[in-house]
């Protein structure tokens, strides 16, 4: 009798659990996902990838200007001067113009990073003679740093102005613009940290 009651109870429990599983319906709305802004990121990414690289038209224009003004290159010009400072070398060409200064196909202020001292080095020879707006200066410089190149350009301009007129020698000489500064960095010595700095002395 007990066995029959147990079997009837188990069958009723199984039927109840099966009916409860059938009655449960999946929530379709909970499974669907609608992103709030799916297109904004893709549009920004596409625009950033598709943007064309900027073209430096100003540098190209300056190169065209230099090539048109200097037929045959720097060496074929009658008014030129070579300046040196430390390890920097500058070849300078003067032509009658409005006062432009172009260094390595770039504007002098841009090339010398707007440094007022370096710009003063370049402009001093012309300012001494009052030629700030009378000549265009074309420079090809290499070696050393910007400070050495600026001083080399100054010497090159001063030497080129001597070819314009020998009367320029006296005012340029008085300002010290025709003197080649021969100072260079002293070489490092064996056993020392720099040219003259020795390592710390240790008694033991």
TrEMBL record:
A GO cellular-component term linked to this record: small ribosomal subunit
PROSITE patterns found in the cross-reference section: RIBOSOMAL_S9 (PS00360)
The keyword Ribosomal protein is annotated on this UniProt entry: yes
Presence of keyword Ribonucleoprotein: yes
Pfam families: Ribosomal_S9
Tree of life domain: Eukaryota
InterPro entries for the chain: Ribosomal_Su5_D2-typ_SF, Ribosomal_uS9, Ribosomal_uS9_bac/plastid, Ribosomal_uS9_CS, Ribsml_uS5_D2-typ_fold_subgr
Keywords: Ribonucleoprotein, Ribosomal protein
Similarity comment text for this entry: Belongs to the universal ribosomal protein uS9 family.
Official protein name in the record: Small ribosomal subunit protein uS9c
Taxonomic source organism: Cinchona calisaya
């Amino acid at each position: 009798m007990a066995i029959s009651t147990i079997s009837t109870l188990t069958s009723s429990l199984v039927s109840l659990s099966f009916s409860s599983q059938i009655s449960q319906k999946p929530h379709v709305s909970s499974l669907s996902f609608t992103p709030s802004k799916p297109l904004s990121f893709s549009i920004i990414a596409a625009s950033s990838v598709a943007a064309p690289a900027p073209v430096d038209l100003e540098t190209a224009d300056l190169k065209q200007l230099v090539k048109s003004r200097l037929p045959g290159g720097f060496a074929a010009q009658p008014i030129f001067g070579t300046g040196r400072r430390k390890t920097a070398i500058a070849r300078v060409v003067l032509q009658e113009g409005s006062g432009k200064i172009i260094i390595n196909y770039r504007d002098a202020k841009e090339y010398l990073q707007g440094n007022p001292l370096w710009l003063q080095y370049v402009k001093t020879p012309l300012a001494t003679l009052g030629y700030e707006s009378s000549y265009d200066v074309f420079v090809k410089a290499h070696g050393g740093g910007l400070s050495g190149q600026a001083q080399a350009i100054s010497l090159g301009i001063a030497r080129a102005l001597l070819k314009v007129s020998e009367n320029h020698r006296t005012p340029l000489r008085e300002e010290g613009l025709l003197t080649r500064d021969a100072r260079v960095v002293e070489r490092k010595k064996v056993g020392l940290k720099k040219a003259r700095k020795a390592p710390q002395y240790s008694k033991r």
